[in-house]
Design a protein that fits this description.
- It is built from 12 helices and 2 strands, in the order H-H-H-H-H-H-H-H-H-H-E-E-H-H.
- Strand 1 and strand 2 form a beta hairpin.
- Strands 1-2 form a two-stranded antiparallel ribbon.
- The chain is mostly helical and about 350 residues long.
- The protein folds into 2 domains: about 40 residues, no CATH class; about 250 residues, no CATH class.
- About 75% of the residues lie in helices and about 0% in strands.
- The N and C termini lie far apart (about 65 Å).
- It comes from Scutellospora calospora.
- This is 2617_t:CDS:1.
Amino acid sequence: MSLKTKRSLQANGTNKRFSKLTKSHYYMLSKVAKYLVEHQIAVIILAYILEVPGSEKFLFLRENPKTGHYEKSMDDTFFIFFWVVTFTLLRAVTMEYILVPIAKKGRIKKMTQRTRFAEQGWSFLYYSIFWTFGMYIMYHSPYWFDTTYFWKGYPHKELTYLLKSYYLLQLAFWLQQLFVVNIEKRRKDFVEMTTHHVVTISLMFFSYIFNFTRIGNAVLCTMDFADILLPLAKMLKYLRFNMFCDVLFGIFMVSWLVTRHYIYGHIIYSTWTEPLLYIEYKWVPEEDYYFTKNVQRFFLFLFCILQAIIIFWFCLISNVAYKVIKGDGAHDSRSSDSERLGMRILNQLHI
């Protein structure tokens, strides 16, 4: 055996041993990382109990002691991070220990359908709670059905505890949704859904930074209402409550038009026409004043992208509804003669 061959074999042996060590090293690191991810909520809470400096930033919002109100702060990122993780845990626990057992009791036999039922159940619970939360804030605000107060008194840099916590929790949820959309069964409108999430997060982030949380609160409320009804209709579909599914889907279609096109359209119109009636264009960061023509254009651009996606989805739903009513493709492999309109539309949409 030549010296060159021996060296080659030795090198190969060394590489294999190094490869095994590397794999073992990364395996250990991945196990440690997984453990930290699964237990970071407990770690944060334990750190707070032990009074570790800085741990309170993950759990509580910082109040301005002079005014008793809350302003935006870099520490908000800790709070958001904690709730991104918490929503992930709450979603998993709620689905596994509450919603999947309900699906079993509802005689949903296929595991895939139980999972989808649980996913829709989580969405229904979340949007029901946060739509109510957001509407409560709006009802006790000056901008309740009065868009002029989106702008009067700007900049609105001081927030109540309820509004700030609502806003940051919603932002945490939508950040977590970017993760969810990639672990759920891939949908045909995956690109549109991802774009919707990115635009929503951008709107929330910049409206928070630029002190336009009032208009952000209003937009979230207009969007969240239809997201209560559609998941509930899907749940009824899986539970085979045909008549209730049918009625609820009709209410959902009407609510979509009213909230996501009519009311949301008024919010877009307000952003376009009303600001200069009450405030002026200027950029003064030291006063937390961030309203220029480009800022206005930026928000209008994001609003219009969001509206375009919503119109696309409504056209898709309307097209399927038309075909079902007309009788074209009204049945697929999962449909039965006893299914009513709402059931058949949901089946045709494959949702």
